[in-house]
Right-handed parallel beta-helix repeat-containing protein
Amino acid sequence: MLPKKSTSYLCATLLVSGLVSGILATTATAQTIESSSEILEVKADTSTVENDLPATEASEEAEKLEVETNTTTFEVKNTLPPITNPKKLADVELPPRTLNEFGKISLEVNLEPAQSPPISSQETAQTTATPTESTVKILPRVGVNFTSGPGVGYSSSFTSLEGFLPLSSGKTNNLPFLEGRVLLSTESALISSNLVLGYRTYNPKDNRILGGYVAYNTRDTGNSNFNQLGVGVESLGDWDVRANAYIPVGDTRQKTQETISNNNLSLSEPVFQGNFLAQTRTQQRQINRRFEAAMAGFDVEAGTKIAQIGKTGDLRGYAGLYYYDAPGSADILGFSTRLEARPTDNLRLGVSLSNDATFGTNLMLSVGANFPGTRPRNIGKENTVLARLGESVTRNANIVVDEQQDVESFTRQETVFVTNPNTGEPWRFQHVNLGIGTGNGTFESPTGDVASALAVAQPEDIVYVQPGTNPSIPAFQIPDGVQVLSTGPVQLINTVEGNLQLPSSGAGVRPQVTGTVTIGNRTTLSGFEIATTTGAGIAGTNISDVTIRENAIASSVSEGILLQNVAGQVAIANNTINNSGLEGFSLRNNQGQVTLSLTENSIANNGAAADDGDGVNVELSNSATGTFNIEKNAIANNSSNSGIADGIEIRIIDNASGTFNITNNQISRNQFKGINIQLDSTSSGTFNITNNSIQENLDDGITLQLNDQATGTFNISNNPEISQNGLFGIAILLSDSTSGTFNITSNTIQENQNNGVNIQLNDTAAGTINISNNQQIARNGLNGLFTTTSETSQLRLTIDSNQIYENSFTSLSINSFGSSNTFASVALNTLTGGSLGDLEVIASGVDDIVCLRSRQNTIGNLLLDDSLGGTIQAEDGISTNNIATSNVTNWSGTNVAARSCGFP
């Protein structure tokens, strides 16, 4: 009888041969076995047959066979078809372990002695492992995945919701399936999608899964929407190979932005055509267009398992190439490598690295989870390949999109009419050629006189006058909105294309006008010689927004320019106004608000026929107000028949007010005062007098006079010359119940015939006067600074950090009469060189008080005298001063405590 171990092994070997031959036709038996309806006789011999199966695996079947060892024989009837291609038992890959695994084989055992020779040891079965199952059941699942960006063809990280649906129920090794994804950009919440229809089959012989798929993708970039078809194949086993192709469909290149830039604009010199001014414009235009293009391409990768993670998890590594192309983009050939870890059946982790010349180097991380897992639950741990039948397809989930830019440049040349920025329409011209033209006002056919052009001119027209034979132009009136310009000076006009010089302008010859030019609203007069035998040279009443520039106005019977009740913007610039019978320029307003700019004019020798013929005269009354900028003018030699012609006279009465900026003027040799400002009634004003040269006027350089209840603020600063005037350099006079603040800083006040600065307060007037940092108050005919207060007036005086020296009488003289009060702070001054004294304080009224705080002055000669009445109070005494000579014998010696004079 055969041993049980040998008998079991022999039966198992025979059963494997029949199963493999009938079902797969690919396995082999150990040796040639006669397979038919004949009885297979096998003689068991323990000396020649060895059982390689463990005793525990074969014992159960061996016990069911009632056989005897040693000499007993048995017969096995094979009910399977005959073996047509017998093989050796050693070729069988995975032999069955028990006889129960041969459920379809019917065995008949004949215990008669066998006729066949015993099986030799060379016919012993040799086996290897094979999967215990070749079919599995794949379950539907859902999942979520996060992938960081940027990557190949996309910039944003994205989250995907995923679903996997097997299209086969029950156990199978051939799996059709449907897989879908919805991708959500984490930066912009834009949605893309994937839909994959795939098929996989498991080949037990090769222990490998083969598969393929078709896919449809969409992507929303925020600017474009793209669609794509995809196909791919895969081979999965101990090592994997994948290939994917991507084919965009529909509109694969979409414009996302277009900008037009105009560069290198060049304009020809303007020329007149008809009634218009034309330019040839050459423009280089560049159109920049941005596109997004979906790229067609493919990728391939191969990889293998690197390490085992736990019982069923693994770590796999892959490397591959990818290629993409789109019209308008450079070809992209790149490489990628990635690691994929599945520590559990429900969790997957990944890291990948890609590099190409277009999208650069990108490191992407991913993490995903799915439920249930991808591994079938009814499969053995050893079937690692078959367990992957339900994995998700590995492919690029995003449609690869490249950003493209097209630049188109071209040059365009056209003739355009220059545009009036006020109307948006072309400037229109009425042409005049004096004494020559006989036409209708076009450039080619001009009129011969100004009146004809004005008759047809419309608002915003320019009447452009050439001197021609230069016959005189009679008086004319400019309609509202019209400009009358001549070719004499350079004429610049404002256009949408920029400031342009008119052709033929700057010729130098000004047409002559023999009567008054009356201006209207929004009008301009430029480039004429005006000499009238009656009235003013230029006049305007109850108008607004006028410009008078670059005219020569001479010998007008009355004013050179007379404006009354003007409003808005009034510009008077670059005119020469000479020898007018009355004022050179006069503005008289009793209502409204005006902004006057009187700039760079020469105003001289006016006023001969007037009692008060000033160079510039401004009078505001009633409720009139405004801002007046008087800058960079030369105002000289104006005189009248009564001897009171000022360079600039400003008079404000009633309830009128104004702000005056008098800057950078040359005011000299006028018959009376250089600047004469007078405020009366309840008027008010602010005056900034800076950077002027005020010289050799026959009376004061500057006179500031307030009467009644007027108030004013005066800032006199940085004037380099207030000098050689016939009386005072600066005279301040406050009367009645007026009040004013005066800041006199950083000026040079010298060589005036009387006092450098003369201050006088009467009645109940109140003044605050700050005189500081003047480098020279020097060599004046009497006193450097002289103050007088009388009656009940009150003066608050600060004299700080001045150089006051070499004045004929005193450097600083403070005088008080009546019941007035003077509070004086005198500090850090140089007071030297006066022939009678350098700091002189005299109180001569019965009730008057002078409170003096003097500190750290250099004083040549100090005189304090309150012997005639009143009191001189010295705050903290006079000891902090450097005094060369002191005469205080007529001083009461009244010392008061700090801050008694009211100064900080």
